[in-house]
Structures are given as C-alpha cells and as structure tokens.
Amino acid sequence: MWKKFLTGAIQHWPERHRAEGDGNPYPERGQREGEASCARTATDATSRPGDDGDVLVDIGTFPGRAPSQVAAAAAIARCRGMPRILTYNVHSCRGTDGVLSPERIAAVIAAARPDIVALQELDVGRVRTRGLDQAHSIARELGMNFHFHPALRVEEESYGDAILSTLPLRLVKAGPLPGLTHRPLLEPRGALWVAVELGEGTVLQVINTHLGLAPSERLAQVAALLGEGWLGHPACRGQPAVLLGDFNAVPRSGAYRRLAAGLRDAQCAQPGQRPRPTFPSRWPLLRIDHVFLGEGVEAQSAEVRRGPLERLASDHLPLVVELSIRPQAPV
Known about the structure:
By secondary structure, the chain is of the alpha+beta class. The protein has helices at 2-9, 69-79, 102-112, 134-142, 215-226, 254-260, 308-313, and strands at residues 46-49, 55-58, 84-89, 116-124, 145-154, 157-165, 169-176, 190-199, 202-210, 241-246, 264-265, 289-293, 297-304, 319-325.
C-alpha cells in the first residue's frame, strides 16, 4: 500500500531522479551473493562455518585503510563510550538533482559527526556510476575504516552495503538474507555484522541491512535477522547490539512490528520527541530507515537530518543516533 502511495508522491520528479535500485538492478542476470564479501581486500582473513550455513569471517586489517593504534585510541577517547551512529541509504551516490557525487554524500555524513556509519545502496565497479568504488571513496573522504558486503554481484560489478568507522572494528559476518522462491527476480538482500571496540573492554555489535520491498519477503528477512544466524547468535545474544538500515518498513507494517516486539526503536525512545520520516528526502513522508536497540544500549538523542544538502544528496535522509552503552558485567 505504501509503495503505491509513494509512487504517486514522486510521479512529478524527472525520470533521472527516481531510484535506480527499485527491483533487481540486473533482472535478466539476478544473482544472490553468498558468503562473506570483504576478503577481496583482506590480507589475513580466516573463516569458519556458522551454524546457519553462512561463513563467519574474522578479518584483521585492510592495507592502507585501517586506523593506526594512535588514531584508534583517539577515536575511542572522543566517543567516550557514547558513540554516534548513522544510517543512510545513499542511492548509489546519485542525488535528487541527478548528480553523481560520493564527495557530497561524504560531506553530509561528516556534518553529522558520526563515529559509526551504516550505508546502503553502494555501487562498486558499476558502469552506471562510472566504475567507482563508492565504499572506498566515501571512507577515504571521511578517514574511516570500512567493510563492504555486496548483496548482489555480477561479473566485476557489485551493489550492496557497508559499515564505516573511526573506531576499531572487526568483521564478524556478511551474508545473504532469504528471498521468495516464487519471485526469483527480486533484488537480492543481505546483512553485514561488525564488532566495534568502544574502549575499556566494551564492544558494540552492529548489524546493517537493507530489506526487500515485498511484505512477505521482509517478514522472512526479519525472522532470519532475529534468529540464530544473526542477533540470536551466541556471539551477539546478550551483548550490546544495534540493528539498523533501510528496512522498507513503516511502523504499521508487520516487519516493523516484529522487530519492535523484541528491540527498541531509537526514534521512539526520546520522550516528547516525534519520530521523523526519512523518505523521500525532498518531501519526507515515510519512516522506513530505523535504528533498533538491543540489550545494554540506550538512545540519548535521535535526529533525522534534513538540511538543504541532505535533501539533495540522496533520495533518503540520514538518521543519526547518539548511544550510551551499559557497562558489561564481568564474565
């Protein structure tokens, strides 16, 4: 229903402004990306099978991309155990004016001063975006380390999600989410899980995702994310954790209600503050980008940034949340 409503809301936009990512970007060659994705840039990756058949990956540093020990210590000191986390669907870095600009996306992110960044709809090596490695470009502009997971890969072209940070981070898992067997041409979806060091032994588990457009597809993907392969995994269960991204799910949807039954919506955790929509950026009507809080995590503030640059850089608005982490009890 909301998709039909949204179509009407954007029907007057120039054609080049509309999302290229709706549906499978390669409908004739759709291919679901399988196991962990970042090993292409790692020098010391090791893997072991997960309980759900995916691969859990322990990746060390990226040459030229990982922060030095001094920089990591400085980042930990700056966040003081209260990291700012941002989720942003960047629409392949193509703005509502049709201009392709990873630099503009980086400027939007920098203005929000986040410590951890979750991005969706990134292109890497795609002809339609001049072959740029958008994850690398944005991370370089921000001086951040990053992990990228292609939900879809065809030949040398990739399309997916990333997590960036000035803080030390370790890739735990990257993999696909279930689709619908009777609709094989739907855009493949995935998730990316990293562990972020906040200092003094505190580690925050961060899972970034971008769910599908079909309601039944989203419900299956939410069930997977809440299950033993992700949030329910022993490495995540009972630990400070955040699940965030573009869920394509408004608060009245079944997928959102399922998530909100066990997690807390950061925008709803602010007394006296009305949650703000994130899409479309020019005339925000729908709240489909979310930050869900798990055990031991509280939201001190939540803001949908809606300045002139934010409304121009992508078709979504960024959501930034300042977190506080409850100290973990000694084991």
